[in-house]
What does this fold into?
Amino acid sequence: MQHHCTRQCKSFARRLLWVLAVCLTIVSPIAGHVVYASQDEVYRYRENNGDTVKNVQWRLTKGDHYTLTCSSPEAEHITVTDGNYITRHWQMSSNDGETQLIAERTGRTIVIRGRFEGKAVDKVLAIDDCPWYQATSLSLREFVASADTERLFWTIHLKTLKAYKIRAIKKEVERSDVNDDLLHIRLTLSGLLAPFWKSDYWFALPDGVFYRFQGPSGPPGSPRIIITRTAG
It folds into this structure.
């Protein structure tokens, strides 16, 4: 019985592997930090999956709430959070016009509507009281600044449009090539599936700007995604 459960867990974990690179939704930090009159933060990242390399622009607009816009050659993600970086609204649009999605949280549900890869979508995802972090490159800032050592949150799988609970764990502080202090944060699946998937983030201290990501791009044997801050 236990062996059967382990086999099911491994199989389920393989199906949950995804490219976090929020804009996993994942995104890595931009090499240059440019501050405009609007106090926007703008960063540029390079994403390498072993076969292709692409550039991503990460732009954060601050006001009564935060609006993060991540643009790549394939798609644009816009994530709106509250002052604690908890996601309230997320939309994704592909440059080929096949995907136009809007997702919003209401209580213990996330409602997703629009088109995904050319097909209509209208679904309600059941979650609990844990926060929703769709753009982990931004939302984990609050965790970086906190005294907490672990954090549970929900995120939506970009390929299946299902919600999964993730555990973030603070690891050690490391030094970058230019002698910046970087906090290493490991993400795992929650519960019994935790041993079967992980990804890693690094955030610059003390401001929590996303610096680097690496994690699997799919099932076992698939290349790893590496996202790094670039210069300029």
